[in-house]
Amino acid sequence: MQEERNPSGAWERAILRMSRAAMLLPAVSVAAIFCEVFLRYLFNRPTVWAFDLSWWLAGTTYLLAGLYVMQQRAHIRITLLYDMFPRGLRRAADALSCALTCVFCFAVIWGGFNEAHAKLMRWEGIGTAWNPPIPAVMLPLILLVAAALAAQSVVNLLSDWNNGNNGGGSCS
Fold first, then answer.
1. 32 in a structural domain
2. pLDDT per residue over 62-79, tens digit each?
3. Is residue 129 domain-resident?
4. Domain housing 114
């Protein structure tokens, strides 16, 4: 198992703190499901909120995990050809990967902004008995995480180039 990478600046420290907090969310989700099972089968008093809460927390964890993986540079990378490239070609590949990541993130934000804004303004729920505002929270969160991923991609690229790393896996 690889050791956790130390953050190189204020942005990365903030991402790391947020990601570590998100690592607690699966435990909260398990506790909610345990509570549901306990109340349903021992007291015949099922909850209306446990499933929705666990779904909400799982989605949030998934989103923030991607940001953590980008900050840690632990994402998947195909290195067979990349490792054979000279330093200049590695930098070009990193720049292209970073640019494509930023274009993708911009497209997600551009395409999802109106819907996320509408759901947030309506404080839209999911229509269950508890009716938590999952769409009103998750859609804007997706856009925020996409922006943060693009920013982290650029931070990785600049950090690798400034440190003189041979590539370093900044964005792919």
1. yes
2. 999 999 999 988 877 777
3. yes
4. 10-77+85-163
- Domain count of the fold of the chain: 1
**CA 19-125-104 angle, 5° bins:** 50
- pLDDT tens column, 107-134: 999 999 999 999 999 999 999 999 999 9
Q: What DSSP element (H or E) covers 158?
A: helix 134-163
Please name the residue that has the structure tokens 């050809």.
81
Per-residue CA distances from 35 to 40, 46, 51, 54 (Å): 8, 9, 11, 11
Can you read off the two tokens belonging to residue 21? 């907090």
Say which DSSP state 2 is in. Answer: P
Residue 36 vs residues 44, 56, 79, 165: alpha-carbon distances, Å: 10, 15, 45, 50
N residues, the chain: 172
What is the pTM for the complete model shown? 0.87
Q: What is the dihedral of CA 144, 146, 147, 153, to 10 degrees?
A: 140
Q: What is the pLDDT of residue 166?
A: 52
Q: Is 3 exposed, middle or buried (0-12, 13-18, 19+ CB in 10 A)?
A: exposed
Please give the C-alpha separations between residue 7 and each of 16, 59, 106, 132, in angstroms, as whole numbers: 7, 25, 25, 35
Question: What is the per-residue pLDDT for 172?
Answer: 46
171 within domain boundaries? no
Q: Is residue 137 part of a domain?
A: yes
